[in-house]
Amino acid sequence: MKNMLTETKLIAKSDLKSLLKQELNKEENRLGLVSSIDGEQVLSLILNKDKGEAELWLSDLEGTAQYPSVSPVVPQAHWFERRLKDLFHIEPTGHPRLKSTLTKSAFEQELAPLAADQNRDFISPRDFSYLKVEGKGVYELPVGPVHAGIIEPGHFRLSCLGEVIQNLELRFGYLHRGIEKRLTEIPWKKSRHLCEQASSDTALANALANAIALESLLQIEASDQLNKLRTIALEIERLAMHITDVGGMAVDLGIPAEASTLSRLRGQILRLGELLTGSRLMKGFVCPGGIATRTFNKNTLQEMRNLLTGVIPELSEVLHTFTDNTYVQERLDSTGKIPRSLAEEFGLVGPSARASGIAYDTRTCFNQASYPDITIEVSNEKAGDALARTMVRVKEIETSIAILKELMENCLTDSNPLPDSLPDSLPADSFGLAVVEAFRGELIHLICTDSKGRIRRYAIKDPSMNNWTAMAIAARNELIADFPVCNKSFSLSYSGHDL
Questions:
Q1: I want to staple 47 with a disulfide (CB 3.0 to 4.6 A). Which of 32, 64, 457, 461 is the partner?
Q2: pTM of this prediction?
């Protein structure tokens, strides 16, 4: 597979802010990631949406562990730069608020977990403080980290005046597992299994991103048939999770009949995954160079077609009954609004971006599975509120069904197992990149190898990293009672953030 990374540039740290701003002012470019390899440099990934390519900028820190923050001119970078402070003890000087993105208990305060020197000196300690909203009648309402049901742990601190939210503070890290560090220690051929655990509801997309990044390093070209099977799996995951999210919204709005129906139909879609891969969550299916050995014949394909055909009428009815409900429309309309200007500034991705009028879907831009050869009408809304985010999901459900129907009509039936000829090591001193449209949006896997072909750095950027800021903004000036609805409309991942 052709590596979409076309160039690696060395950029002086003093010039990074101005050059990054200049490059991102071009309409075709967006910021994919700001991170580091080992704490001795700043790594900036610039994606070109028109060409489906990317550039990697490396800025040497010259032994100082600090550089001028780019967040004042590139607001999207603010969360990435806070992660630099947490994980590498790199200080972006001039950052507007260098608060930790993790809890104190995620790891010891003095550690720089991903830096070559994990106990390096740091300029200032990590900041765990909350923003204090003062004024007569203002009070704080803590929510989490333990939540009702099976939701993952995350802490929300709402500063309220009466019933109106003045500010929302987010705290994560309760699920920090050191996944990126561990990916540099295990055999690379087994890395897909750990990538699947980064965010288990995005297991297939993470496995696919792992495979694409490694295949780009090894220059392995996937066959058309293999890409079709991978695309089917990716769309099954997208379909199941969008149904889950719409069903979750029905729960929060107190419409149990539609919520239970959508839950049952999600189970039918997961059955599609089981027929294709042997696992309802499709774990262990995608691997570098192929797919795991799986008996896949005409009978299986026909059973999948029949199952999907049977689900479509009932699914369509319940979705449109839900979105046509006047109560649903009135409750979600203008709730948790994110205007396009803010969505662009903070680099929103996935349904959250498309609900604010940003027609960015990596399936139409970057090489992944059978895309961008499949024609996709990007689901787009303009209002930027909870209703728009829900409508985008409903439209994407319809798009995924159309893609599945098309591919299952034309998919070959013999399986493509993992090749036996994969090398023992990866190319030395190289980078591999994957950009995949997970159901939440732009998912990035970036791999850097050392002089012996071992993985030196494995970076995962979950779509939620882009969107948590929007969640905090959307909650402001909303009623406390609308906070769960606002949160559900973004449907972000805690574990995908914590890694």
A1: 32
A2: 0.95
Who contacts 148 (Cβ-Cβ below 8 Å, separation ≥6)?
none
Residues 296 and 431 in one domain: yes
Look at residue 412 and tell me if it is in a domain: yes
Q: Domain range for residue 264?
A: 179-464
In a domain, 492, yes or no: no
Residue 188 CA from chain centroid, whole number: 22
The average pLDDT across 141-158 equals: 85
CA–CA separation, 433 and 106 (whole Å): 28
Residue 407, pLDDT above cutoff 70:
yes
459 to 97, 165, 198: CA distances (angstroms): 24, 35, 11
Reading the block at residue 299, the tokens are 């009978």
| 60 in the same domain as 184 | no
Which pLDDT does position 340 carry in this prediction? 95
- Both 45 and 167 in one domain: the answer is no
Residue tagged 């309309």 (tokens)? 333
The rounded Cα 167 to chain-centroid distance in angstroms is 24
CA atoms within 13 Å, Cβ hemisphere of 414:
2
Tens of pLDDT along 227-273?
989 999 999 999 999 999 999 999 999 999 999 999 999 999 999 99
- Say yes or no: 162 and 239 in one domain: no
